[in-house]
Amino acid sequence: MADKHLVRFEPVGIDIEVREDQTILRAAFEQGVMLMHGCKEGQCSACKSFVLDGEDIELDRYSTFALPDFEKEEGFTLLCRAHAYEDLTIELLNYDEEIIRSGLPIQDAKAEVVSIDAVTHDMRHVVLRLTEPTEVKFFPGQYMDIAIPGSEATRSFSMANISSRADGRLEFIIKCYPDGAFSTFLDGQLEAGDTLELTGPYGVFTLRESSDNDLLFIGGGAGMAPILSLLRALADRKLDRTATFYYGARTRKDLCFTDELAALEKSLPGFRYIPALSASEDEDWEGEVGFITDIVKASGTDFAKTDVYVCGPPPMVEAALDMLPGLGVAEKHIYYDKFTTTGDNASD
Ligand SMILES: Cc1cc2nc3c(=O)[nH]c(=O)nc-3n(C[C@H](O)[C@H](O)[C@H](O)COP(=O)(O)OP(=O)(O)OC[C@H]3O[C@@H](n4cnc5c(N)ncnc54)[C@H](O)[C@@H]3O)c2cc1C
Ligand code: FES
Which ligand lies nearest the alpha carbon of 224? Predict the structure, then answer.
């Protein structure tokens, strides 16, 4: 059994035990401490923190874009890559009081594929049923890491449903990319009845329920999955908040869950769904046309009292993050999941 050390997080005053063979982030997740994170692979810098006390730390492979050498020299570290070899005190640079202590411990699970249905030409609605254990607790908006059988690799996928309590089900919306490792496996091999291994839940793209601000959701591609989960949760809990979902797609054939979103407009009186097509030559399309961020901007809405949830491909998320402060949204009210890919990131 590997040696363990005590890691204290400031300014929140939370202590965890960390084994030398696991990263500090992983140990925190196992103990239900939901620290800020993104890629979990040393690429995105979301978990960057400052070492206040202690120096015996070793980092797994990471990108110097996420942690440049001069920052490492100054005492910054990446918790998703850091192994502690002595007791440490870490200052969290980025944390959310409402989320950090509400974390559910991650667990390993197995699930059987119930169904795989095409919801667009390149998006699949995948339903799994947990077999071991038969329930994984998660918050709407969170994700699981699914292992690609026969390899060490995993890919992250956000749940589109709100709970596995009643039926052990996890629902995903997965976009297939040409030559992507998981995509090829999903479209070429995976069938109903097959077993998948998963770990989770991860993620902080969850509803801040203590707020009564209006809600703005901006999504693209498979970013539909966690946003649908959040909208389903609003409906399930009968939360009466004004909410607008701007969804960007290229053409009409990239739209999905349209009937359910229309039904949500009826069950949630304050909810509106606004799809926009960026590459449509469809003359019958009467909806918005253009990039989704431009459509949000052109709406002329005052977003000063709004919580914004952004999710989808990295370029769309970055464009939204650049734009939102200019529309009056406070940075602390912006929550996002960037669907970064694993295949094309070079690491040091
Ligand atoms: C927190 C989080 C949650 C996520 N949730 C979801 C989800 O709910 N649904 C979902 O579909 N995906 C989600 N993703 C992305 C997912 O984890 C995979 O990265 C994605 O499905 C590609 O996996 P792959 O193995 O098929 O491709 P990889 O083998 O990782 O990629 C190989 C190649 O495919 C191409 N490719 C892959 N992705 C893209 C892209 N976005 N744009 C252009 N080319 C690309 C590139 O050429 C890349 O080099 C999430 C990612 C994160 C970080
Ligand atoms: S979560 Fe650590 S660098 Fe992305």
Answer: 1
